[in-house]
Design goal:
This protein is of the alpha/beta class and 481 residues long. Helices cover 49% and strands 11% of the residues.
Length: 481
């Protein structure tokens, strides 16, 4: 019987896609022991950019999060990483140092996503990961376009294999993969990677991901990225319960502790209910997704931001504008940070009297090739307009700053701990860093959702309007004063 494994996304990508990143350490730590028992091949745990997110939006220290969770989950490799390319804001010396420190904190694998599949950047990231003693999983970021063919992805996979990737995964961030394309794409890639494990990570934005998963394992994909039911579907990943059931009907076996999986599921269902967070549901097929290709995580952030500004009715127009920009710029893959760059340019194009009257530095750098190889040429009319801009001439020979670790340390203060130093270098809000560090160790008192009676007692004891609590059921009686 053929075996498959699962990479769990319930601690990182799923809440990013469905809950706009509102997953705190307190929500995950009480159930960590059960998560570790499930038998996941690994856990998609933290992105490089989510360290800053923890500080700015959750008021938490990400170093504390990873150390606590690594200790609580010794049997499940924690995966960190994402887009390691710094896009000119952080020197390579810092990213390399970060890889070393994140490994010391408990991470065991780095996920490498380069939005342009730039092998120069990917090779550097593999080298840093290996030096830090971590395994590597490198993303083939899937998109639908005339130039992103099976041959394109197969050739990129070959380069990744030669560069030393331990694992390769198809990352369908926009939910664009179809069962038909899966049947041609997976074999084309597998012919080139010489036995390196191939994984599939897809979002359910069009509702097709669960079907693609089944096609993929029939073709030799070994690991599937899934989430527990409350955080699955919608813009998130497929539901592990559904995928596991169907995979077994196809004759596949998976070593999963279903009691632990049930406990994990009930806990996060409780978290969603307690915090007023949405529970994932299957979506209806949307052909427009293949045009704008906005990924699930960005869509949830975009909607939240537009609602905050009171202009949520402008979302359809913005998506149409992003569709145009994506075609004009030569089909950049709509993944962080390129998707955010295109989103920002769409707002500028709609706000100005004329499209591309104002162009962001990031889009100029992309057009100039500073972010890596372009999959297709930029449309001539758009390129001519951008190339004539004074700012373009200033950025023509731009190169990212490459200060040494010692030089950056001197800038931020030589006496900082490694943790604080990296938080300050990687954060966009120094005041938020000050506040997190001033708080000291966090408090993570949160009820276990899979133990409803204990959760009830926990909730009742937090109330300030009662002198005592009495609970009685059958022969059980408890009074708390």
């Amino acid at each position: 019987m053929k075996k498959i494994t699962f990479v769990d996304t319930s601690l990182r990508d799923a809440p990013q896609s469905l809950w706009n990143g509102r997953m705190t350490t307190a929500m995950m730590l009480p159930i960590a022991e059960e998560v570790d028992k499930v038998g996941f091949e690994s856990s998609d745990f933290m992105a490089l950019i989510s360290m800053d997110w923890c500080v700015r939006n959750l008021g938490e220290n990400p170093w504390e999060r990873i150390r606590l969770m690594a200790k609580a989950m010794p049997n499940t490799p924690l995966v960190v990483g994402g887009v390691l390319r710094n896009f000119g804001t952080v020197p390579d010396s810092i990213t390399e140092f970060w890889a070393i420190k994140i490994a010391e904190a408990g991470a065991r694998r780095i996920r490498i996503n380069d939005p342009c599949h730039d092998m120069t950047e990917i090779k550097k990231a593999i080298k840093w990961s290996q030096k830090a003693g971590m395994g590597t999983m490198v993303a083939l970021i899937y998109t639908y376009s005339p130039v992103h063919t099976d041959e394109y992805y197969a050739n990129k996979a070959l380069e990744m294999a030669k560069a030393g990737a331990d694992r390769i995964f198809i990352k369908d961030v926009g939910g664009l993969l179809t069962p038909e394309r899966t049947r041609t794409l997976v074999p084309a890639i597998m012919k080139k990677i010489n036995g390196i494990p191939l994984e599939l990570h897809a979002h359910c934005t069009t509702g097709l991901a669960p079907l693609c998963y089944l096609e993929a394992i029939k073709l030799g994909v070994e690991s599937l990225h899934t989430a527990v039911a409350p955080m699955a579907n919608g813009p998130s990943q497929p539901n592990i319960d559904n995928v596991l059931l169907n995979a077994r009907r196809l004759g596949f076996e998976a070593q999963v502790d279903e009691k632990a999986l049930k406990d994990m599921t009930e806990h996060f269902r409780y978290v969603a209910h307690r915090e007023g967070l949405p529970v994932g549901t299957p979506v209806e097929y949307d052909l427009f997704q293949y045009e704008h290709q906005v990924p699930g995580g960005m869509m949830s952030n975009y909607r939240a931001e537009l609602v905050k500004r009171g202009i949520e009715d402008q979302l359809p127009a913005l998506l149409e504008e992003m569709t145009k920009i994506r075609i004009e710029l030569g089909y950049p893959i709509m993944v962080t940070p390129l998707s955010q760059y295109i989103g920002a340019q769409a707002i500028l194009n709609l706000s100005a009297d004329e499209r591309y009257a104002v162009v962001t530095d990031e889009v100029i750098k992309y057009v100039l090739g500073h972010y890596g190889e372009l999959a297709a040429p930029v449309e001539e009319a758009v390129k001519d307009r951008i190339m004539k801009m004074p700012r373009t001439q200033e950025l023509l020979n731009w190169e990212p700053p490459q200060a040494t670790l010692e030089e950056v340390r001197a800038e931020f203060g030589p006496n900082l701990s490694d943790d604080e130093f990296l938080l300050r270098v990687l954060s966009s809000n120094q005041q938020a860093v000050d506040e997190v560090l001033a708080k000291g160790p966090g408090e993570y008192d949160y009820p276990r959702g899979d133990k409803p009676l204990m959760a009830l007692i926990h909730e009742l004891t937090q109330r300030k309007d009662s002198a005592y609590i009495h609970i009685e059921k059958g022969d059980f009686s408890l009074t708390l004063q």
